[in-house]
């Protein structure tokens, strides 16, 4: 095996490692309750990571056993996959850039406005048929129940100083503007301003209802998705930069390998 092929083999091994954070990001997204209900983006990320893994493996085999045709196919396929990864990253950045959160005085958590998020993400999640499924999924989960079970707040002040997730803030309590009185994390009474917001009348102390029918719940779900996507994007950006670096050096090594092969044949009298 020539020097260039050895370099290409090492680079493809690095490419194999680059697929790990991509697959890991997809699995991490799939493990989140909101993504499980929305079923958005998790499988494309995992599939893209697996394809990069397989293509890198093919490139490693082609370099190690000096299969120039396999190496050429590897370079073409990897270029396509890198472009797809970059397109996904740009798309994810654009649709998660708007932030619908706003602070609440005296509260450690934020609340969320539905129209503060990107129109694509908003329409995808709030489509009536899709939201019916998402709402049923959230209701069947313990996203709100475990808030009261795992964190038994003794006073309202302790609760108000808790950093709730966007999903918990939007779905597990009424909006602050409604003026409900705190009893426990999922029970609120005596609204002093019940008409301040349409969600005020949608709130229910029924543990199967809570604020799952509220606009604030939809906004909280989008807030959760936004946070998780942007965290996953960090791993994807690192992987994309590494893959581009590997690909550029791999192209150079492939050209050198062809030169080495021609020189070898020349010495053996084939040219």
UniProtKB/TrEMBL annotation:
Entry keyword set: Membrane, Transmembrane, Transmembrane helix
Recorded superkingdom: Eukaryota
Signal peptide: none
GO biological process, one term: auxin-activated signaling pathway
Bilayer topology term: Multi-pass membrane protein
Gene Ontology cellular-component terms listed: membrane
Transmembrane parts of this sequence: 12-31, 43-65, 71-95, 234-255
Xref: InterPro entries: TET_plant (IPR044991), Tetraspanin/Peripherin (IPR018499)
Cellular compartment(s): Membrane
Membership in a protein family: Belongs to the tetraspanin (TM4SF) family.
Protein name per the record: Tetraspanin-2
